[in-house]
Amino acid sequence: MGLLALPAATLWSQVDNTPAAPVPAVVGQSTSDQMLTPPPVSGQSYPTAPISAERSNYLRGGVAFTSAYTDNALGSVNGHPVSDVSYSIWPMLALDETTSRLHIVSTYAPGFTFYQRESALNETDQNASIDLQYRLSPHVTVSARDGFQKSSSVFNQPDLASALPVSGGTQEGNFSVIAPIADRLSNTGNVGITTQFAANGMVGASGTFTNLHYPNQSQVPGLFDSSSQAGSVFYSLRISKMHYVGATYQYQRLLAYITGGQSETQTHALLFFYTLYATPRVSLSFFGGPQHSDTSQPPLPPLQVQLPDAKAWSPAAGASLSWQARLTNVAVSYSRVISGGGGLMGAVQMNSASASIHQQMTRNFSGSLAGGYTQNNVLDSTPGASTNGHTLSGTASLQQQFGEHINLQLGYTRLHQDYSDVAVLATTPNTNREFVSISYRFSRPLGR
Questions:
Q1: What is the CATH number of the domain that holds 308?
Q2: Within 10 Å of residue 285's Cβ, how many Cβ atoms?
Q3: Domain of 257?
Q4: pLDDT (tens digit per residue) in 25-48
């Protein structure tokens, strides 16, 4: 997947050295008879912090100051990319509250970025997210998530080390096509319900939506607004404490708002999955099955020729691994699915791989690595045009804690994109970015 990470509180939670408090057996915690929701149908990304950094029932806040150098701040001018140095300030407030029935995490982090040379790029950013899980009864759980981001640079976010979310899910947004400097609004939401109707049987349903909007199209020639709506139902069977199998049906409506109209793709998929919970903190998942797509394109200018609808069957498959230890956290995933184009001229056949590792090396020193590769092949694109391409990204960072409240972070991000027919990306496919960030944060327990 891409460099866009919606959760905004990860950086602050990773450096919390206060003793962990016991968490009640709420959503995501398994009791002797409570089933877990397997990663292929949970709709969640894998956790990015080791166990020692997990906290609940806390109010967190703070502010971060970041300086970064990028060699591709303005795109190509006279055949050469323009470099610049930026300075950002990020206030942040987060609430993480857990009760016997409810777990809610809400985060708000506005941002202000100033450029040393290209002052026209100065910007105000918005990051907000909410994640809610509520247990209606001992075996019925409702969940809802929403994340919103307004930014002129995909690199400007409070958690610079969390370069990409890693998910084991079968249905996820495509954020792999990245215009480094362009006004953009993005929103992703999900709502779901699960019911454990028997000792070893669970059913569930969920709905997901995404929206991507470029307010200034002149900044992103070759990219377009897009949106998606999706729904799914699943059945999961627990064979034993460690082994889960099941099936899910999924529907998607994927829209790209291109010149002259909109490209629409509808998909139907029947997928089978298996999850192994080797330990409470180690899981391995697989999914696979047939996926059918039906794509319609707007009339072609200037003759307004209507292309026939394109229908096709294709295999969908994926695998993921999550390992969460006291000081180490590892997540790896691969998927081959039909997804939204994320700014391209239509839905895509997406092959995506991502991985992340976070290591707490000493009490106050940690490091993380994250990377991803995505190949996007547009379904039935306009004859004579091909926006197929791939994205390769990686981020490495180190964090040093000073005392209880101060954290220093150093990092490097490398982004390579190969989309020869997307004008905004073709001339400057590579971006290198070095950053340093110093933050002050506080954490206050709730109800204690």
A1: 2.40.160
A2: 24
A3: 10-445
A4: 333 444 457 899 999 998 788 876
